[in-house]
Design a protein that fits this description.
Length: 167
């Protein structure tokens, strides 16, 4: 049996991948997705025109372009706000500020962004463009998951506060 150090690694070496690197990678990906979201929003009119010309949209008419653009920009704002809050959440984790009220607020905002995106996408997918409905269902499911995680963090913050007062 190999000699394992207290950290569970052979010979006491540090693991190649750790929590710090994982958080840094997630923050980098969050920034990249933020930039991609801005680029897609900037290309919104071209994307909507392409969808309409290709016959991908279920409803036709002059107002369809403006409705899709409006929905797209509204969803872009929600996505950017959600990504900003995710970035802040990850920054706090990296700094060791895990069980603090600001973390709970960030998770609450992320959950609300996902829920609002679901409320926008599901009906739009049923009427305009079916893939919106799929995105809406995924966003709704993410809202539920993040809300449960938010509840766990909120409970941990309360327990930490109680523990801080008793010590």
């Amino acid at each position: 049996m190999p000699n394992l150090a207290p950290d569970g690694q052979k010979g006491g070496t540090h693991p190649f991948w750790d929590d710090r690197k994982s958080i840094a990678l997630t923050r980098l990906v969050t920034v990249l997705v933020f930039v991609v979201c801005i680029v897609i929003a900037a290309c919104g009119p071209a994307i909507v025109d392409w969808l309409i010309v290709r016959g991908r949209v279920a409803v036709q008419g002059p107002a369809v372009r403006w409705v899709m653009l409006g929905l797209g920009y509204l969803l872009a704002v929600l996505a950017l706000w959600m990504l900003y809050n995710l970035f802040r959440f990850l920054t706090r984790l990296e700094q060791g500020e895990v069980f603090v009220p600001a973390t709970v607020r960030a998770l609450r905002r992320i959950a609300w962004c996902c829920a609002l995106a679901a409320l926008i996408c599901v009906p739009a997918g049923a009427v305009l463009y079916f893939p919106f409905a799929c995105m809406g269902i995924a966003a709704g499911f993410m809202a539920l998951i993040v809300h449960v995680i938010k509840n766990a963090f909120e409970q941990a913050v309360k327990m930490k506060d109680e523990l801080d007062y008793t010590v």
